[in-house]
Amino acid sequence: MSRGVAWFAVLTAFVTGCAGYHLGPVTKTSFHSIAVPMFRNDTLRPQLEAQISNAIIRRIQQDGSVQIQPQSRADVILDGTIFRYQRIALRSLETDTGIPREFRIAITVRVEARDRRTGETVLRSTEVEGTSDVFIGEDQTSAEMQALPLVADDIARRVAGLLLESW
Length: 167
Known about the structure:
Layout: H1 2-17, E1 33-35, E2 40-41, H2 48-63, E3 67-68, E4 76-92, E5 100-115, E6 121-135, H3 140-164
Parallel strand pairs: 1-3, 1-4, 2-4
Antiparallel strand pairs: 4-5, 5-6
C-alpha cells in the first residue's frame, strides 16, 4: 500500500509541477509587429547606425515574439539616437603609461517606442549603453573594428529586453 501512495505522490507532484508550462514565447506584449528605422548617429564615429540598427533587428527576429515590419505596417516604431561613443583606457604598458594596451568601447543610445496608430508611448525615452573590452595588438583601429559588432549586440540585447520581456 505504501508503494501505491508513493507513486501517487510522485505522479501528483509531476502533474502539478508542469501545470504552468506552455509552449511558445513567454512575452505578452501589446503589439505584434515593430519597425526599426535606421538610428540617428550624433557621434563623430561613422557608420555606427547601421551596425546598431541591424543588431537590434536580428535580436528581435531571434526572439520571435514580434515581427519586423516597415513603418507603414508596424504596430510600434522604435526610434533611436546614438549620442555617445567612448574609448576608455583600462590597462597601459608598464614602460609607457601613455600607450593603452586594453580599453573599453562604450556606446550609448537613446531609444523610445511608440504605437504608430495611437501615438501612445510603449517605451519611454531610455538610455542604453553597450560595452566591450578590447586588447590592442599592433593596430588600434582593427581592434576597435572587431569590437563594434560585440558592442552593437550588447545594445541590441538590452533594447530587446526592454521591449519584449515582461518580468
